[in-house]
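Dear colleagues,

As part of the handover before I leave the project, I'm documenting each prediction I ran so the next person doesn't have to rerun anything. This entry is a single chain, and its sequence is reproduced below.
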Amino acid sequence: MLPWKSIIFIQPDTHRPIYLQISDAFIKEISAGRLHAGHKLPGSRKMAELLGLNRKTIIQAYEELDAQGWIQTRSSSGTFVSDDLPVNTYNALDPLNQAVDQFEIPEINSFDYIPNSKNEAKNEIIVDGGSPDHRLAPMDWIYRESRSIINSHFV
């Protein structure tokens, strides 16, 4: 088992929330290659015990890492470093700026544009590879509407 207490350094006197400090430490370790894809992480109870923190703090950190795509939770198996990590390295442009002129920019008249050549597919942005961020959902409105619908149908 990794020495989590020395890997994850918590600074309680900063303005950054502790759960974000934990997620930052995980991202740093994954980016450095010390935690590789598929590596199993300790459960939230065990991690909270190792770090001397509240379990809810660890759950928040894991949820943040999951929302960003750094880890994935498999039911009945545990939490693992994601096999499909987010892009965290950037390729520099060609010094002669030839990389920009290499491809023609196609005219797009609709949202259902499908690239038809291999060169265009390399520059495509894929937006369906993640999951929605549940923290952005208007939960108060959803609960209020749900209660309204339930009350109106069962009265």
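The beta strands are 40-41, 71-74, 78-81. The two ends are 57 Å apart (CA to CA).

All the best with the project,
I.
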